[in-house]
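chain below, 334 aa
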Amino acid sequence: MEPLLDTLGRPLETLRVSITDRCNFRCVYCMPKDVYGRDHAFLERKELLSLEEIARVAGVFAGLGVRTLRITGGEPLVRRNVEYLVELLAAIPGLELALTTNGSLLEQKAEALARAGLDRVTVSLDSLDDAVFSALNDVEFPVQKVLDGIDAASAAGLRVKVNAVVKRGVNEESIVALAERFRGTGHVLRFIEYMDVGHTNGWRLDDVVPAAEIVRRIDAVWPLEPLERARADETATSWRYRDGAGEIGVIASVTQPFCGGCSRARLSAEGRLYTCLFALRGYDLRAPLRLGRSDEELAEEIRSVWHKRADRYSELRTAETAAQPKVEMSYIGG
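prediction:
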């Protein structure tokens, strides 16, 4: 199959699908409580793509070259029957299935997700300190419950990664403790620079802890050595512990942009296609889907969008672009 290329020669290989805009956390860098409070208007059920519609669109993307699909949210595990969705997606040939979660419901659902065909899971955990973690998730959810979810996922046979968003003055002192907790476990810990996704999180460049600083903090305790990127579209730069205790990754969208290798498309919960995490607008796939368009007609819509794609926001980021309106992370799925 000839790869589907955008204007910069980047292939379409990965699809991130948000299946809900709802979440049971109110993380300050994603869904701050003062915006997403009791009166916030979330999408109505009829506005969401059904599980069957998601699976159908995923099949069309697979036919265009997508080989990895990541289920996101909001918090995807709050969507009813998510295990059934995984089962539908697992029936699509050649598709690797991943899911990103805050871990709050993972202990209960890990085994069913693995049985349904999920391959791997990424769990968000920004600190091992309950006070810091509670301040970040803003619902007083305990660290141990997330760790229990990670253990359950591993026991169910799922490959596990752990993501930590680092924000200056909030949790940079948690970096070494997180590294210590996951060294030797086989789980890859990845640190993410605090990014200017949307506007509700009040992002400022001063809040960013650069990836280089994160690496230096860990290297000072356990020496690291860099690993080569296995794929051009990898978001993380990987480092290996010299003592053989595993590896870490750093995702440096702010200080070391990787737009040049980006192969990811994003589908929002109500069926809008976005070609960048920092996109200003999406393309409606729900309407043609519900108007009875054929798979080939849907594929042609997607081809048309991807062929015109020229996004490289992180490489062009300035104080002016950071202030532009952008879709919120809770809506697009990170």
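The chain has twelve helices and twelve strands. The chain has a mean pLDDT of 90.
thats it, cya
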